[in-house]
Amino acid sequence: METPVYQPAPPMSPSDERTWAMLAHLSVLLNLVSGFLGVLAALLIYLILKDRSRYVAYHSLQAFIMQLIAWLGGGIVAGVAWAISSILSTVLIGCLLMPIALLFSLLPLAALVYGVVGGIQCSQGQDFRYWLVGDWVRSTLGA
Asked: What is the Cα–Cα distance from 30 to 111, expressed in whole angstroms?
């Protein structure tokens, strides 16, 4: 019986890299339907293709972390802000806090727009970087 020899996957073409990077950013659209599948899709793209392309690894990890922050973190913060303003609405201060809670509720929507912009820029071959997240991911990957 012959022992199988591991053959590393060939590197990706620039066109494929742009496509997968774009899909990683656009995975944020899945969150509209499911609430969490976009995060999972970006993570899967990273885990499957990280060894074939540093470009795809960088963009998919960026998209994953940004979605975690904006969808999970933003959702939790918005929920807490609405709960506090609802509890305090019996007093005037709660009503004054509602605009702040509304701003936190818009965080996932802003992330959605940001992800679409990232997807478009990657499809055009431009390098896209999320504010704060992009530099951290680049230093983590050693790029």
From this structure: 12
- Could you list the mean pLDDT of each consecutive 10-residue stretch along the chain, which spans 143 residues? 73 90 92 85 94 91 90 83 79 75 81 89 88 82 70
Within 13 Å, how many C-alpha atoms sit on residue 66's CB side?
Answer: 33
Strand stretches in 16-58, DSSP E: none
Q: How far apart are CA 30 and CA 136, in angstroms?
A: 24
The set of long-range contacts for 12-15, using a CB threshold of 8 Å and a minimum separation of 24, is 12/49, 12/52, 12/53, 12/56, 14/125
Q: Where are the beta strands (DSSP E) in 31-120?
A: none
| CA 92 to each of CA 6, 66, 76, 88: distance values in angstroms, whole numbers, following the listed order | 67, 35, 24, 7
Q: CA–CA separation, 39 vs 75, rounded Å? A: 13
* Entry pTM: 0.79
- Is the distance from CB of 54 to CB of 43 less than 8 angstroms? no
Q: Percent helix, strand, coil in the chain (nearest 5)?
A: 80, 0, 20
Distance between CA atoms of residues 23 and 8, nearest Å:
23
